[in-house]
TrEMBL record:
Its main location: cytoplasm. GO terms for cellular component: cytoplasm; nucleus. It is found in: Cytoplasm; Nucleus. It holds the Pfam family TPD. It comes from the Eukaryota. Keywords: Cytoplasm, Nucleus. This is CDAN1-interacting nuclease 1.
Length: 225
């Protein structure tokens, strides 16, 4: 989808013209959904491009938040277009508001899974809610009270991601989250529960290590002198 969607950005006008032509010909509802099948693109991705074109000449175009109109299609002034966009949200299992809600729920599920495994391993830790009470704006899912070592690498925090860690996602998370954790708490562990390509691994990276599970071969740091 990501590879194809990049190509669709330059085709915004084409999709818009095809949509208008279909409406002019009084085609049955589901025009955009059928377009998505034809071009092998998720319905909501095409819907976003058509909405952008629809609002392009509007006086409030710069204030438009397309995602708001996907979440609540009743806000779209054009009734026919509103129904078309609504159908896209029903038939899209990857980029619809409903799928985003499901992804958020899945993320919470795996955060709980991480907490349970950390407790089972007997590690003392603080969670995001506790850290935010002390003024931290960007916090990992788990901040260890006492560092531990995994494969000879000392970690101070653990971040859970219930997704496949592709290069784009990893690059974005590294920039906006992981490096902040490293600056504040030292090196840590990132878990992509659904795997990751080896291309994101950096040899001798001293900021964080990447796994698809929480290892159990943990070496506990002794507090005795």
């Amino acid at each position: 989808m990501k590879v194809n969607h990049i190509k669709t950005q330059s085709n915004m006008n084409k999709y818009w013209e095809l949509y208008k032509e279909a409406v002019k010909n009084s085609e049955s509802p589901g025009i955009i959904v059928k377009m998505s099948e034809q071009f092998d693109i998720c319905p909501c991705l095409i819907a976003k491009l058509i909405l952008q074109k629809y609002f392009e000449d509007s006086e409030i175009a710069e204030q438009i938040q397309i995602n708001n109109y996907l979440r609540d299609t009743s806000l779209i002034p054009d009734v026919d277009l509103a129904y078309e966009i609504f159908l896209c949200t029903l038939y899209d299992n990857l980029y619809s508001p409903l799928s985003e809600t499901m992804k958020h729920s899945l993320g919470q599920e795996y955060e709980i899974k991480l907490h349970n495994e950390v407790v089972r391993l007997g590690l003392a830790f603080r969670d995001e809610e506790h850290l935010r009470k002390y003024g931290y704006d960007k916090t990992p899912d788990v901040k260890l009270d006492v560092p531990v070592a995994i494969d000879g690498f000392v970690i101070n925090w653990i971040e859970s991601k219930a997704l496949f860690g592709d290069e784009d996602a990893h690059r974005e998370y590294s920039k906006n989250q992981y490096l902040s954790y490293w600056n504040r708490f030292g090196p840590g562990l990132v878990i992509y529960w659904f795997g990751f390509p080896t291309s994101i691994l950096q040899i001798n990276d001293n900021r964080f290590i990447i796994k698809d599970h929480l290892p159990t071969n943990i070496v506990y740091v002794s507090l005795h002198c």
